[in-house]
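EI: anyone free to look at a 116-residue chain?
SC: sure, send it
EI:
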Amino acid sequence: ARLVESGGGLAQPGGSLRLSCVASGFNFGSTAMTWGRQQAPGTEIEWVSWIYSDGRETDYADAVKGRFTTSRDNAKNTLYLQINNLRHEDTGTYYCISGLNVFGTRGQGAQVIVSS
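SC: here you go
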């Protein structure tokens, strides 16, 4: 399994970013996926959201609910995370992870820096 995130970068508070994750090497369309983030090196990866394999159900951590939206395009083997109304505390490395928790296979991460 291989997961490659992209779309991170520097953004101002209140701004938006869209992260993408391209999957290969496994049956993406049959796999629930999770977004996790690590707010500082050496800290635990915290759960941000998950999405069922068919995309019909999602869930979000309270800290991001109403600002983050996860979606997927199974035809393109791609997972997305739309981040709106960015806050300083959203700074960190974002990982797409196979499965419904943060302990599955993950990519190299996409760094998000929120700064004015």
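EI: The chain has a mean pLDDT of 97.
SC: 👍
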